[in-house]
Specification:
This protein has about 475 residues and is an alpha+beta fold. It folds into two domains: about 240 residues, Aminohydrolase, N-terminal nucleophile (Ntn) domain (Glutamine Phosphoribosylpyrophosphate, subunit 1, domain 1, 4-Layer Sandwich); about 180 residues, Rossmann fold. About 30% of the residues lie in helices and about 25% in strands. It has a seven-stranded antiparallel sheet. Strands 5-6-7-8-12-13 form a six-stranded antiparallel sheet, with helices on one face. Helix 5 crosses helix 6, helix 9 crosses helix 10 and helix 9 packs across helix 16. It starts with a strand and ends in a 5-residue tail after the last helix. The structure holds guanosine-5'-monophosphate, iron/sulfur cluster (SF4) and magnesium ion (MG). Iron/sulfur cluster binds next to helix 8 and helix 17.
Length: about 475
């Protein structure tokens, strides 16, 4: 998901709509905006579909006046059934000290236990979302301010959360102690501040990057001033390394590092770790493109666009059903036949999850007459599900959980298949000495099986770490 908030500008909701549009890659199912105006109070809109199809209509935006607004773009994570409009964030609650709205990116790993407890104590849930727990926990807190209640609530939450919240007068941002999901702070105009999942959300509205919200930090912004607090136990950060590989936009800056440059460097590492003789390096667009550029630069094998992506399709994996996902590959990608005919082709993709994409692409590229097909993958084998906000399927659907690398190569049906090593990935992400195995610098649970936060709901349901 993507979260965004603005304070101290005229018609903040318009800025939020633009910010969410820049964060659309983080969730394409639905979007929502809550705005507050001193005269007209809180107003909100929640819609299925793309931001550009909903929040560009003057008739809708006129209903969201005021200098303070937050928003959310959503994609449902593992286990969620067909979405309902009540699941769309931001969520709103009335408290004794006034209303507040929250938008959450990440996934709470103890949400089911919390929900049971809250329902037993009288909470009436409106949605199926884990994030709604935060509002109910706030309602049960005895703290005097919204911010303190949010801190109280989040101290009971486990897992990953980057939260953007608002009251009538304040914009609030929080990151979980490990800082699994991103959140950055920007400045706009004379008195305005912005919170965004990624820096590309600042760029689109001409805001200036100030800094990242730190892991475990809470910022409260009001009247052009920022207060910072540390409401949680100190922990060593474990940012999601898959944000670098796939999830974030390549023009975003994370941890002072360009996502594009990390992806290009992954390609360089891959070319060193797993060289192969071939005629062309082709990305599986768009997510494989920077790594393919790096692979080509390092190996000297020409880069070519052997596959064209239909720009009007979304990200395949965000489509929730298997059937749509299967069709998706062909609807989204097409092979440039005359280019690959008779050639030995290296295909670079960001990840192999179920293997659906790789297998379909191999078929298409062999149909086009390629002489050889070699897959190079910009992440290690995805052998474990993510419980922190990225939609990986159950373990039994993950190709790498069932097969060795050679078995995967044969199942996909290619001449060779190589994944970047975990150390190579860390080097590409700027860790010159690779992964510190005693205390890893990132979360990499979907590759290593080492979960930095115990996924307690899952364990209760029989998941074995
Ligand atoms: P597969 O077809 O192997 O299930 O999915 C791999 C493709 O989905 C890759 O091209 C990749 O861009 C995209 N993808 C990236 N991350 C994820 C993820 O977390 N889950 C899923 N299902 N697909 C992803
Ligand atoms: Fe990111 Fe993977 Fe960790 Fe999930 S398990 S937070 S996708 S590194
Ligand atoms: Mg892809």
């Amino acid at each position: 998901c993507g979260v965004f908030g603005v304070i101290g500008v005229t018609d903040a909701a318009n800025f939020v709509a633009l910010g969410l549009h820049a964060l659309q890659h983080r969730g394409q199912e639905a979007g929502g905006i809550v705005a507050h105006d001193p005269e007209k109070g809180f107003n909100s809109a929640h819609r299925f579909g793309y931001v550009r199809d909903n929040f560009t209509k003057a008739s809708l935006m006129e209903t969201l006046p005021g200098p303070l607004a937050i928003g959310h773009v959503r994609y449902s994570t593992a286990g969620k059934k067909a979405a309902v409009i009540r699941d769309i964030q931001p969520f709103f609650g009335e408290f004794s000290m006034g209303g507040a709205a929250i938008a959450h990116n990440g996934n709470l790993t103890n949400a089911e236990a919390l929900r049971r407890e809250l329902i037993e104590h009288g909470a009436i849930f409106q949605s199926g979302s884990d994030s709604e727990c935060i509002i109910h926990l706030m309602a049960r807190s005895f703290q005097k301010t919204h911010a303190d209640r949010i801190a109280d609530a989040l101290r009971r939450c486990e897992g990953a959360f980057s939260v953007v919240a608002m009251t009538r007068t304040k914009l609030i941002g929080v990151r979980d102690p490990l800082g699994v999901r991103p959140l950055v702070l920007g400045r706009i105009g004379d008195n305005g501040y912005v919170l965004s999942s990624e820096t590309c959300g600042l760029d689109i509205i001409g805001a200036h990057f100030v800094r990242e919200i730190e892991p475990g930090e809470m910022v409260v912004i009001q009247d052009g001033k920022i207060e910072s607090a540390r409401p949680f136990h100190q922990a060593s950060p474990r940012f999601c390394i898959f944000e670098h590989v796939y999830f974030s936009r390549p023009d975003s800056i994370i941890g002072g590092r360009s996502v594009y440059e990390t992806r290009r460097q992954i390609g360089v590492e891959l070319a060193r770790e797993a060289p192969v003789e071939a005629d062309l390096v082709c990305p599986v667009p768009d997510s494989g493109t920077p790594a393919a550029i790096g692979f080509s630069q390092e190996s000297g094998i020409p880069f070519a666009l052997g596959i064209t992506r239909n720009q009007y399709m979304g990200r395949t994996f965000i489509e929730p059903t298997e059937q749509i996902r299967n069709m998706g590959v062909r609807l989204k990608l097409n092979v440039n036949k005359s280019l690959v005919k008779g050639k030995r082709v290296i295909l670079v993709d960001d990840s192999v999850v179920r293997g659906t994409t790789s297998r379909k692409i191999k078929e298409m590229i062999l149909d086009a007459g390629a002489a050889e097909v070699h897959f190079r993958i910009a992440s290690p084998p995805t052998a474990w599900p993510c419980f922190y906000g990225v939609d990986t399927p159950d373990r039994n659907k993950l190709l790498a959980a069932k097969m060795t690398e050679d078995e995967m190569r044969d199942w996909i049906g290619v001449d060779s298949l190589k994944f970047i090593s975990l150390d190579g990935l860390y080097r590409a992400a700027g860790e010159a000495n690779g992964r510190n195995n005693a205390c890893p610098q990132y979360c990499d649970a979907c590759f290593s099986g080492e979960y930095p936060v115990v996924p307690s709901d899952q364990i209760e349901k029989g998941f074995e770490m």
